[in-house]
Structures are given as structure tokens and as C-alpha cells.
Amino acid sequence: MTTERLDQVLVIHLDDGKANALSTGIIAAIHAALDAAEADASIRAVVLHGRPGRFSGGFDLAVMRGTDFAAIVGLVSDGGELVSRLYGCSVPVVAACTGHAVAAGALMLLGCDQRIGAEIDCKIGLNEVAIGMVLPSWALTLADVRLSRRHLQLAVVNAQMSNGREAVDAGFLDQVVPEQEVLPTAIAAAGVLASTLQPAAYAGTIAAFRTATLDRMAEQIKADRRAVSAK
């Protein structure tokens, strides 16, 4: 992960050379970048940018396919806290979705204010049921408030995946543009948010509008962690 400062916008670039999987290390690095953004009054928006063809393929498969149940729940809970952090961030976060965004990658999109995607043949969505998993409660909570009501059943229960344009209708993205225009468009969108939104009013509105959802997600993540500790 690297960061880049462009006037009032902090760009977070995610590129592991592979699937942009979410590990404990990359989750911690994104948190640190968001900490820096929220602590610097001159930063008024953030862009979360994937690598060519991939925004994120989800959680680290080395952990998720392992036999250590505590490690799996720990990683998923860490991911829930990151998604919650994006959703509750005191500065606007714009996603530059460069391609595939699967499972936790799609959930990160749901945590961002504005989502710019590539108009390419890619897979975006929640595939957990198709691969034998049940979405954690915190993910269901966020999906319920952010996905289109018409697509909620298909996207969550039936694990229906979308390409870039279909993902707009489903609610994972807000706009698709040609692949090479994703990052510039996301930076421009973040610049508009940075220049037009009053920071204190934005933070106050986030608290008023999203606290109930964020509190519920936090309790669900805590319950998951407690369930592991009790075993």
C-alpha cells in the first residue's frame, strides 16, 4: 500500500501484484492512512484505489482456507472494523474500483461514500453463499442499508455477481467509466467533495445518519469475537 497527496485529497493505492487480498497487515495499513487523513485538517477527502483489473479479491485465502477458526473469525472481524471505519469516516471516501471486487472487496465498496468503477467485464459482488459461507451479521447489516432493494435478495442470498455496469444498478457502484478513466474520475469526484462539503457539517451528518448502523455493526463484530473467545 502506498499513499499520494493531491491537494486536499489523499489517495490510497492498493497493489499487492495479485488479488489485492485483505490481510491483517493491509487492513492495519489502510487504518493508518485513514488515521492520518482524519488527523490532518487540510485533507478533506480520500480515494481508495485498486490495482489494474482488481479492486480487491476479498480476505486472504491463506487464512480463510485454513483450519484455525479463531484466525478466520479474527480476520473477518478485522475486515468488519475496516469496512465500518470507511462507512463512518469523518472525511468522504471515494472508491476507484479498477475491476474485480469480490466478497470483502465488495463490502469495502459498500463502506465508501462514492464508488467509481471500470466499465469492463469483471465480477463485483458477494459470492459467499456460492462458496459455502454465510455472510457475517455486520456485512448483512451494511448490505441491507446500501444495496438496491430490488437486488438485495439476488446479491446476498443468491450470490449473484455483477459486471461494472450491472453493479451500478445493484448498488455496489455509483458510476462506471472507461477503465483508464477510473482513477482520474475518482480523484476529481473527491476533489469536488473536498471543495464543496463543510468538514464539521459532513462529520456531524455522518454521525447523525449512520451511527445506528455503525453501532449495530460494532456490536455484531464484538459478538463474533466473543463467540470465539468462549470456545
Structural class per helix/strand content?
Answer: alpha/beta
- Give the CA-based shape: globular
Number of strands: 9
User: How many discrete domains?
Assistant: 1
Distance between the termini: 35 Å
- Briefly note the CATH topology name: 2-enoyl-CoA Hydratase, Chain A, domain 1
Which sheet architecture does the biggest sheet show?
6 strands, mixed
Oligomer: single chain
Per DSSP, the total helix count is 9
CATH superfamily: 2-enoyl-CoA Hydratase, Chain A, domain 1
pLDDT average, as an integer?
A: 96
Unreliable sequence segments: none
Spatial extent as radius of gyration? 17 Å
Q: Level of helix content?
A: 40-55%
Instruction: Tell me the CATH architecture.
Output: Alpha-Beta Complex
Which sequence of strands runs across the widest sheet? Answer: 1-2-3-5-7-9
